[in-house]
Design brief:
Blueprint (H helix, E strand, L loop, with lengths): L1 E4 L59 H8 L12 H9 L10 E6 L2 E7 H7 L6 E2 L9 E3 L6 H14 L11 E4 L9 E4 L9 E13 L2 E9 L10 E3 L1 E4 L6 H13 L3 H4 L3 E12 L2 E13 L13 E8 H10 L5 H13 L10 H7 L7
Parallel strand pairs: 1-14, 2-5, 8-13
Antiparallel strand pairs: 2-3, 4-5, 6-7, 8-9, 8-11, 9-10, 9-14, 12-13
Helix pairs in contact: 1-7, 2-8
C-alpha cells in the first residue's frame, strides 16, 4: 500500500474551504496544498450525537491527505496548543449517554453482571424463551440465559443463532467472537459475535499501537487512512496498528498478529512493542452500550521502515510529526474517535501535554472514564 512522509514546511500555503467547527476559520480560502494541487473541502463537522442506533459507527472520511497536511500546519489556525478543550471534546464523543443508563437492565450469568441490555432490545429477545429468561417478579433484576444452557459452548451456539435470527437489527456481523466475562482475565461464560457486543453491553477489549519514529529530537507517528470500503469509519484516520481482542488470544500476541496484517511489520520488530497502559470509555447510542477498554502499546520503528497493509483495511499511511498529529486531533474530526484517546495518552506520556496546561489532571483522568476492569 502507498505510504509517504508528511513533512510540512512552515512556509507552505494551504487550502480548505469548509472548516465549519472552527470559529476562527469562518471565511473560505483557496491556496495551494503542500502537494501542489487544489484542496476543495475539509470536513471537520462533529459527528451526530445520537441520530440513530448506528450513528456511532457510520462516520466517514471524505478528506484527503492534502487536507490533513493543510489543517495540521501550526500557522493554519491561531489556536493555543496548551488549550485542552478540544481534547476534552474528543473524549466526550466516546463517552455519550450517561444519562440514559436507566434504560438498560443488567445481563446476568451465574450471578455475575456481564453486560447491560436496552429495554427495547430486550423486547426482541423475549421471542427466544428457550435462550433468554426474564424474571417475572422484578424485570429490573435483568436478563439471563436459560438454565439448560450450562456450558460456554451451548451458550455460544444458542445466542449465536438468536443473533442471526435478528437480522438487520444487528448490522455488520463479522463472524468474530468476543469473550463474555465480568472483568478482564476472569472466567469466560461464553463467546459473542463481535458486532453484537454493544447490544448486550458486554465489556469489549482491544489493542492500539502508536508506531513512532525518532529523527534527531523530533518524533513522528505513522498514521493510517482506513479503506473507503470499511464497514465502520470508512476513510477516517487510524493508528498504524489497532484491533479488537478476540476470544483465545493474548494482548501481546494479538499486537504481533495485527502488526503483520495491518502494516506488514515482521515479528522480529513487532515483538518490541511495549505495553504502556490502557484507556476506557462508556458510550450509549440507541440500543448500543459500548463498554470498551483499549490496551495501549508503543513501538519505536527504524527510520527505514515503510508500512505495507496486508489485509486491505488500510488505504495508505503517512509519517507525520507528533505536533501536527495533535493539531489534527484538536482541529478536526478526521480520526476514528477512540484513536484520539490513545493518541492523547501518547501526548501525555511523551511530554507534549504538560502539567502547566489548565485541566491537565482532569483530562488525564478522563482517559479512563469507562469501567477499566
Amino acid at each position: 500500500m502507498a505510504s509517504d512522509i508528511l513533512l510540512l514546511s512552515p512556509k507552505i500555503r494551504l487550502s480548505f474551504t469548509s472548516l465549519r467547527t472552527l470559529a476562527s476559520l469562518t471565511s473560505s480560502c483557496s491556496h495551494t496544498t503542500p502537494f501542489g494541487c487544489r484542496s476543495t473541502h475539509i470536513i471537520t463537522t462533529k459527528p451526530n450525537s445520537r441520530s440513530s442506533s448506528t450513528s456511532a459507527t457510520t462516520g466517514t472520511g471524505t478528506f484527503t491527505w492534502n487536507d490533513v497536511a493543510g489543517i495540521s500546519q501550526p500557522e493554519t489556525v491561531s489556536d493555543d496548543p496548551s488549550d485542552l478543550k478540544a481534547y476534552f471534546d474528543k473524549i466526550r464523543i466516546c463517552s455519550r449517554g450517561s444519562d440514559l443508563q436507566s434504560e438498560f437492565v443488567p445481563f446476568v450469568i451465574e450471578d455475575q453482571i456481564v453486560g447491560y441490555i436496552h429495554n427495547g432490545f430486550a423486547g426482541h429477545l423475549r421471542k427466544f424463551q428457550d435462550v433468554f429468561t426474564f424474571p417475572l417478579d422484578n424485570p429490573s433484576n435483568g436478563v439471563t440465559l436459560h438454565k439448560l444452557l450450562r456450558t460456554p459452548d451451548d451458550r455460544t451456539t444458542a445466542v449465536g443463532e438468536v443473533i442471526k435470527s435478528l437480522g438487520e437489527l444487528i448490522p455488520g456481523l463479522r463472524n468474530e467472537l468476543y469473550p463474555v466475562t465480568s472483568s478482564f482475565g476472569s472466567r469466560i461464560f461464553f463467546s459473542l459475535e463481535r458486532a453484537a457486543a454493544p447490544y448486550f453491553g458486554i465489556k469489549a477489549y482491544g489493542v492500539h499501537m502508536n508506531g513512532y519514529v525518532e529523527k534527531g529530537d523530533q518524533k513522528f507517528l505513522w498514521i493510517g487512512k482506513r479503506s473507503p470500503v470499511k464497514q465502520t469509519y470508512p476513510g477516517m484516520l487510524d493508528h498504524l496498528v489497532a484491533g479488537g481482542l478476540p476470544h483465545g488470544i493474548a494482548c501481546g500476541e494479538n499486537i504481533v498478529k495485527e502488526c503483520e496484517e495491518e502494516a506488514g511489520i515482521p515479528r522480529s520488530i513487532a515483538s518490541g512493542a511495549t505495553p504502556v497502559g490502557a484507556v476506557s470509555y462508556m458510550d450509549i447510542d440507541g440500543y448500543r452500550y459500548k463498554r470498551d477498554v483499549v490496551f495501549c502499546y508503543d513501538l519505536k520503528l527504524p527510520e527505514s521502515f515503510i508500512p505495507n497493509n496486508e489485509d486491505g483495511e488500510v488505504e495508505s499511511f503517512k509519517l507525520i510529526p507528533v505536533e501536527h498529529v495533535a493539531n489534527v486531533i484538536r482541529r478536526t474530526y478526521f480520526f476514528k474517535p477512540n484513536c484520539c484517546l490513545v493518541i492523547i495518552d501518547f501526548l501525555f506520556r511523551h511530554g507534549y501535554i504538560n502539567p502547566e496546561c489548565f485541566g491537565y489532571l482532569d483530562l488525564l483522568q478522563s482517559l479512563k472514564s469507562g469501567d477499566c476492569s
